[in-house]
Amino acid sequence: MKKLFTLLALVGVLTLGNHAMAQEESTDMDTSSTTVDSAAAETTVEEETVEEVEPVAEEVEEATEDQSFHQVIKDQFIQGGVEWMTPVLICLILGLAIAIERIITLNMATTNTDKLLANVEDALASGGVEAAKEVTRNTRGPVASIFTQGLMRMSEGIEMVEKSIIAYGSVEMGRLEKGLVWISLFIALAPMLGFTGTVIGMIGAFDSIQAAGDISPQIVAQGIKVALLTTVAGLFVGIILQVFYNYLVSKIDSLVNQMEDASITLVDLLVKHKLTGRA
């Protein structure tokens, strides 16, 4: 009996041991499975987070790229202060308006002097002074107007023709230079307004520092940035208008040279055809 009980006890112990080991293995497997599932879940969450973050980042980049140049200028204009940026903008608008009007006028005043001189010479040879006057009156531009004034003094002699051409040439040159004084004014005025806004902005920044009782980098940087925007705007306006001004001056110089050369050639034609003193 003792052997039987001993055998049964041994079998029971072995059975319990095997069952406990089976439970431990099952627990380990469950833990491993849980760990794997957790890792997989974390990976999925990370992937979803990355997928969610990437569109947001792309939207931010697209929003930054979609911000138009007009919007940027508008924001800088507001930050610079409407009370000082507005006069600078007015200088730009008025200066560009005058410059565009002058460009159109000067381009319309440009004349093919070689063709005009050839037509005048043919008219003098075929129909005399009156025919030449008709040609110059039907031609647009300051050169033709000077020719008309010179031909109208034909009966008074070649000297009067020359004096008439010189005098009326000065009048035409004054007309060509009309409006340039305003462009030069805006070129000088825009940077001055910008500097004035900068000085007043710096004063405001120092007032903010004094009111705060401490030199804060944020206060100083913000005040200086706003102050300098007016200077930048004024300088840009001055640069733009200066380019137009130089183009207009060069165009006027070219037209004046054409008038002078054509006037000399006209006098030579009159001498050549011996028409001085004829009606």
TrEMBL record:
Main location: membrane
Region entry Disordered, spans: 24-45
Signal peptide: 1-22
TM ranges: 84-104, 180-206, 226-249
Membrane as UniProt keyword: yes
Biased composition annotated in UniProt, kind: Low complexity: 29-43
Alphabetic keyword roster: Cell membrane, Membrane, Protein transport, Signal, Transmembrane, Transmembrane helix, Transport
Cellular-component GO terms for this entry: plasma membrane
UniProt domain MotA/TolQ/ExbB proton channel: residue ranges: 142-260
Gene Ontology biological process: protein import
Pfam families cross-referenced by the UniProt entry: MotA_ExbB
Subcellular compartments: Cell membrane; Membrane
Superkingdom of the organism of origin: Bacteria
Topological type in the membrane: Multi-pass membrane protein
Family listed: Belongs to the exbB/tolQ family.
PANTHER family registered for this protein in UniProt: BIOPOLYMER TRANSPORT PROTEIN EXBB, PROTEIN TOLQ
Protein name: MotA/TolQ/ExbB proton channel family protein
Organism this protein belongs to: Fulvivirga sediminis
